[in-house]
Description:
Blueprint: E1 2-3, H1 6-15, E2 19-22, H2 29-44, E3 49-51, H3 62-65, E4 78-82, E5 103-106, E6 117-120, H4 127-138, H5 143-156, H6 167-177, H7 183-191, H8 196-207, E7 210-212, E8 217-222, H9 224-230, E9 252-260, E10 263-270, H10 276-281, E11 286-287, E12 291-297, H11 300-315
Parallel strand pairs: 1-6, 2-3, 2-4, 4-5, 5-6, 8-9
Antiparallel strand pairs: 7-8, 9-10, 10-12, 11-12
Amino acid sequence: xxxxxxxxAAALLREFxxxxxxxxxxxxxxxVGCAAGLCAGLRKLGKRAYLLENDGKTRTTAPYMxxxxxxxxxxxxxxxxxxxxxxxxxxxxxxxYKNRVDLAIDHHPSFARFGRANxxxxxxxxCGEIIYDILKExxxxxxxxxxxxxxxxxxxxxxxQYSNTTANTHRVAAELLDTGxxxxxxxxxxxxxxxxxxxxxxxxxxxxxxxxxxxxxVVMKVPISLMERVGADETDAEDLSSLGGQIEGxxxxxxxxxLRPDVWKFSVRTGPRIxxxxxxxxxxxxGHAAAAGCTMEAPMAEAKQKMLAAxxxxxxxxxx
Length: 320
């Protein structure tokens, strides 16, 4: 397994053809935007390149995948992954490629370097910044590449509000805007529009929130029963984890989402006091210092207590 520079990654991609690009399970704007932008860049070079279909896509991410999805029967010669830290995050239909990834591109500190070659930059605010540098190395970045990359970078930084946003993030975003993309629509759809069902979900989460450690930690729960009662789908539930970080006085927001009966996906968002990646690593997960996640199989109360114990282990005994 080799770690590549941007120039080396670009040179490797020039050699590839018949490329299949993978996105992670429950795909967000970052992985989808990276994959779509890279696919557009490879096609500009005359390559045959496609995205592997991902049944976790939502109404907001699907339009960026649709033009690039692989036709039935496509057999790739090379496989590339974007914004996937570990192979456990491969969708079910991507598991056949776990040992076939020729190039893995990522920015997570927990990145497992599972590719035959790897391009990682843990200091990047979003994986889209890395893809952008690679595409610049391959030639001019067009609007077709720039639009999904803007989706990738803006969503992974919370529209440039999260602590992972850097000066370089803004520089890359400005260069993407210079290509003439319709960033206003992206911002409206991803950051300024909520369905009624989404608002119902948030209302229930806020009504049932629990505070710990002197009010600095908030836990919010999204059981299957809530999703069913509201009639919500994956689009309505996108990025619910951002809600906890908006509560005054908290520096650790824990969102519990029930994926299947007694199977909980934890999303942890933290300030400088708590390293979310260290917390989630205690439970088999990982991510960034300020944003990480893990999955646990246990009844709700037990799962919550295990997560709180992991937080307490890294911070010291709670004040209450």
